[in-house]
Design a protein that fits this description.
Elements lengths: L1 E3 L32 E6 L12 E2 L3 E3 L6 E4 L6 E5 L2 E3 L5 E3 L12 E2 L5 E2 L17 E3 L6 E4 L8 E5 L7 E2 L1 E7 L6 E9 L4 E8 L2 E11 L6 E7 L3 E11 L2 E9 L6 E9 L5 E2 L6 E11 L19 E9 L2 E7 L20 E3 L1 E9 L5 E7 L7 E3 L23 E8 L4 E9 L9 E5 L2
Antiparallel strand pairs: 1-2, 2-3, 2-4, 4-7, 5-6, 6-8, 9-10, 11-15, 12-13, 13-24, 14-23, 15-22, 16-21, 16-24, 17-18, 17-22, 18-19, 20-21, 25-26, 27-30, 28-29, 31-32, 32-33
Length: 446
């Protein structure tokens, strides 16, 4: 057995010729240097003089001449703590995370400057289970998901390419309902195995030719490059960050299209810079922790299962709203209420609708989520949508909704009792200045 600064023990005395394996002494003048990598090398001998080829270990790094312990609570999605002495290069950090099995929680936090930060959102479902919700193509399924992940849990998945007779793509993908015409950031943790490249694609799920792409080198984190902006896509940036143990967080930000209501995230295996190639049926990469969030920067990873995580609601300054964004005041503290209306975001017209089509809008709601737009048709008459709910007689109710002017700047909001006769009361709202008109009362027989 030998130890040296390069694989093969070049800094050590020669090998023993025969006999039992022994620890070798260091060459004269050889000392360990803080931060340098050293390799253990072993070779088997037989008493007749035969010897095996040398086998090299993964390597170790000297992190300090005396025992030390330091934690970085300021940066990173995980808390990084460095221990002094001799440590494995493959695992140079001691990882701490909140209990519950995920490396981060959907809670708010204070950053290093003392600013209160909202919890990040993750629109992706099953962020760690690529056998659920995700679609796959050109992969051996079901995926094996028992590999060591960046948080040390055995939850990482291996994407293994199929054995192909012709060049094909090998990928997993997921589509989510979202306003495509805005900046999005996609991220995933990946680790090289037999393959050392992945490509991330963000596309309009309705027109996949409109997309942005980036290729990531996992062999040493050499970098990333936006390799394609197709159709109406406009990319902003891509990055790759080492998180230890050969894992990298790969990030792509940009706007996939100028319109659309569904966004598609796709992760492909790359080989030699190509994502369409002939697979061998055994090679692949490890992936874990997929995330999709609105905005041009990546946030701490948020674990999801069957539902997306949109973070807490935020209070805002209505007078500051411009171009779809508003100045945040902090967390919106609300008492617990029950919303008796169903489908409160109106993805489609309600049970009662007249001369209206509901379409996705590029504007954002006060909490940063997507909104829909009421679009009138050319019919002369009322243009409206409505919802019904079961109520209790002689009980007071409050109703509310968020509104914003479009081509029209006035709306009447009604609430009342259906049936015969029916009664209703409402108020006219001027969305240009927020002014209200006289309450409207209506009693009709029908």
């Amino acid at each position: 057995m030998a130890l040296g600064s390069t694989a093969g023990a070049t800094d050590l005395l020669g090998w023993t010729d025969v006999g039992n394996v022994t620890n070798r002494a260091l060459s004269s003048g050889f000392t360990f240097v803080d931060g340098n990598t050293y390799y253990a090398t072993v070779r088997a001998y037989k008493t007749n003089g035969l010897r095996s080829s040398a086998v090299n270990g993964d390597g170790f790094i000297v992190i300090g001449s005396s025992p030390t312990f330091a934690c970085n609570f300021m940066t990173g999605s995980l808390i990084d703590c460095y221990g002094g002495g001799l440590s494995s290069v493959a695992r140079p950090l001691i990882r701490f995370h909140r209990p519950g099995g995920a490396s981060s929680s959907p809670g708010t936090y204070f950053d290093s400057s003392g600013m209160l930060k909202a919890a990040p959102a993750n629109y992706i479902l099953q962020s760690q289970d690529f056998n659920s919700t995700w679609s796959s193509g050109g992969l051996v399924t079901p995926l094996t998901q028992t590999y060591a992940a960046p948080d040390e849990s055995l939850t990482a998945a291996k994407l293994v390419e199929t054995a192909d007779g012709a060049a094909t793509a090998h990928s997993v993908s997921q589509s989510v309902t979202a306003v495509v015409a805005q900046t999005w950031t996609a991220s995933i943790y990946a680790k090289a195995v037999e393959r050392s490249q992945i490509q991330i694609v963000l596309a309009n799920d309705g027109v996949t030719a409109n997309a942005i792409r980036a290729v990531f080198d996992l062999s040493g984190g050499a970098g990333s490059a936006i390799t394609s902006v197709s159709g109406n896509g406009s990319a902003l940036s891509s990055s790759i960050q080492s998180v230890g143990n050969g894992w990298y967080r790969c990030v792509l930000s940009g706007q996939p299209d100028t319109a659309g209501t569904a966004l598609r995230l796709q992760v492909l295996i790359g080989a030699g810079g190509n994502v369409n190639y002939v697979g061998d049926g055994a090679s692949g990469v490890l992936v874990w922790g997929a995330q999709l969030e609105a905005g041009a920067s990546v946030s701490s990873y948020v674990y999801t299962t069957t539902t997306a995580n949109y973070g807490p609601r935020l209070d805002h300054d209505p007078s500051s709203c411009s171009g779809g964004t508003c100045t945040r005041r902090g967390l919106l503290v609300e008492d617990t209420r029950t919303n008796i209306l169903t489908s409160s975001i109106w993805p489609t017209p309600g049970p009662t609708a007249g001369n209206i089509t509901m379409v996705a809008s590029s504007m954002l709601a006060p909490d940063g989520t997507t909104v829909v737009k009421m679009v009138e048709d050319a019919t002369t008459g009322a243009h409206f949508i409505g919802r019904t709910a079961t109520i209790v007689a002689n009980t007071a109710y409050s109703y509310s909704l968020f509104l914003r002017a479009g081509e029209r700047n006035q709306i009447i909001v009604y609430g009342g009792k259906s049936g015969n006769p029916y009664t209703r009361a409402g108020i006219r709202v001027n969305l240009s200045d927020g002014s209200l008109s006289t309450i409207i009362l209506d009693l009709r027989l029908r």
